[in-house]
Amino acid sequence: MLEKINALREEIASATASGPEEVEQLRIKYLSKKGAVSALMADFRNVPADQKREVGQKINELKTFATEKINGLKDSFAVAEDASLDEIDLTRTATPGVVGTRHPLSIVKNEMLRIFASMGFTIAEGPEIEDDWHVFESLNFPPDHPARDMQDTFFISRNPVDVLLRTHTSSVQTRVMEKTQPPIRIVCPGRVYRNEAISARAHCFFHQVEGLYIDKDVSFADLKQVLLGFARQMFGPETKIRLRPSYFPFTEPSAEMDISCDICGGKGCAFCKGTGWVEILGCGMVDPNVLKACGIDPEVYTGYAFGMGIERITNLKYKVKDLRMFSENDVRFLREFEAAH
Ligand code: DAH
């Protein structure tokens, strides 16, 4: 009897099947009521009493073994049965993964930096949490200048020195000039903060790119040429610029620059309020007081600086009407810039 059991076990162990039907035949052959294992059970009656215990155990083991073997074979065909190779179209294109898009402000910032890099400017960055010296005092702001007021500046602490969120990236000028002697030719991108009520046209944070060039014999004409080159690369070769006199504490003389309105081509429209021009930046020759404060000799060196808002340039390029769109992370808005990068 024990020999029979062992022989059957070996037979089952080596059984193979090439499809689910053959597995079913194996099941019938070994495990059905008329199968080989059941036949052993029937023979069990004739086993001498003193062997019953051992033989019974072996038969049970064999039954378990056969059941597991057949279930295993069944499982191996189950997958192929669910989706047989004939039904899978291996030539179909896969579902593409969702790829994120670059933020419009990053697209425009990168383009601005690329243009300035082509003119020899390198990138400098500074901290967003600053002190009064770097944001105001070194840049020739009088002590009672309104920009220092609680209205505009987010102060973090006022003791022992004023610590605040920078209101412009001009602070990076000071940081670089303090550590480096001319020639200096940098652009400084970054986020700035102002205590403004949030609306379509104002936000409590936005982004700027600051530019600074200090060397011997730098003139206003150099400034004008660099800004013209920038405007034409950014907005197209037909773009015109004009400079209007203005005032900033850290430049003398100071100017604001307009570009010809590219919506109406300079004829005047609602966007440029009928003037044909739109303002894009502030600029000027670095005030000698600023050079002096940063340890650069104004008798030897001169320089120019300019600063502009990345949101403003982005609005002009992509006609975004509401500033708040830039920080709401609405993917329907962000996806519109898919083709732009
Ligand atoms: N810092 C100015 C602002 O935030 C922008 C600016 C104007 C920067 C004139 C300059 C400049 O470097 O020369 O409004």
Walk me through the topology.
Layout: H1 2-13, H2 20-31, H3 36-43, H4 49-82, H5 104-118, E1 122-123, E2 129-131, H6 132-135, E3 155-157, E4 163-165, H7 171-179, E5 184-193, E6 205-215, H8 220-235, E7 241-248, E8 251-260, E9 277-286, H9 288-293, E10 302-309, H10 310-318, H11 325-328, H12 331-334
Parallel strand pairs: 1-5
Antiparallel strand pairs: 2-4, 3-4, 5-6, 6-10, 7-8, 8-9, 9-10
Helix pairs in contact: 1-4, 2-4, 5-10
The chain binds 3,4-dihydroxyphenylalanine.
Protein model, in words:
This protein has 341 residues and is of the alpha+beta class. The chain contains 12 helices and 10 strands. The chain has helices at residues 2-13, 20-31, 36-43, 49-82, 104-118, 132-135, 171-179, 220-235, 288-293, 310-318, 325-328, 331-334; strands at residues 122-123, 129-131, 155-157, 163-165, 184-193, 205-215, 241-248, 251-260, 277-286, 302-309. Strands 1-5-6-10-9-8-7 form a 7-stranded mixed β-sheet, sandwiched between helices. A 3-stranded antiparallel β-sheet has the order 2-4-3. Strand 3 (155-157) and strand 4 form a beta hairpin. Helix 1 (2-13) packs parallel to helix 4 and helix 2 packs antiparallel against helix 4 (49-82). The radius of gyration is 40 Å and the shape is elongated. 28% of the residues are buried. The model has no long low-confidence stretch (mean pLDDT 91).
